[in-house]
């Protein structure tokens, strides 16, 4: 029976995709369905745009597939906003979306510094949102706002996994470079808390502005300290600059960071220097999800230029969660919020979604490594089999 259900779900994706290719349902006069708007907010420009565009595309795909269902009660329209991964811009666009009464709910934010800055806005305007990428725990756990939900995991999971994995690889000494936003401070906190019980030692910590360009001073000290690992608590643009300058200064340490650097943008920006970088992400590879292939087939058929990236599946799942809630109770913010609050056992692309008492989904972290120009699930990598060596291990052996 379980196999039959999985087959049925795959057929649903295929049939919906075929329907989209055959006819523009939104323009069909035969469908007298009301249109309901939902917002997507993420970084659509700037250094984190690879992840933001992948998230937007994935949410748009969910909307198109939902609109192709003949029994859907409503036609959905995705309204995208660019938060630029900047808190001040994020608050502006969150206010614009939340004050627009025609927008019933939102799929919101990849950047933690933006997400934490906007929670008060969503609460004040009563707009229910589902976070699709930001990992700062305080976004859900730092308040009791019923409007705030999150389908992805937090940096608590990622920091714990990072400390356990890196020490098991034989790394003992660490230097932390983190940005001075709430995101970077949180990464430093949760990694350091979990590292000490594992026997690792932090030799130095360098807080840096997220827009800092030159790391000569910090990396000169890193080179003198000779750590096994440089742990990055920052997003892709910062990670690219640090990794590239480590290479230029001849620092042989392993670079590791959590999901903030796990993007196509990091590999493209760092180039060959990205090889062997390790990252930790609250999500499994698409190949491990029951409907992963169906998602990728539909994504490819839609013709998006950008990869869905690491958090696209979460944006897709958040969009479906919201639309299914609206289908149940209609386009009413309070009613949709209440349905989202009680989410248990919801079958999504990223697995079963179960919200705890702070509307936080519990997700396990996984290990990835940059290999041959792409992020590879650690157990499937040449590094796991020993065919390739991590940069830090190669230097120390």
Automatic annotation (TrEMBL):
Keywords associated with the record: Signal
Signal peptide (residue range): 1-32
Domain Leucine-binding protein: 35-369
Keyword Calcium: no
CDD domains recorded: PBP1_ABC_LIVBP-like
Protein name, as recorded: Branched-chain amino acid transport system substrate-binding protein
Keyword Signal: yes
Superkingdom per UniProt: Bacteria
Family membership: Belongs to the leucine-binding protein family.
PROSITE patterns associated with the record: TAT
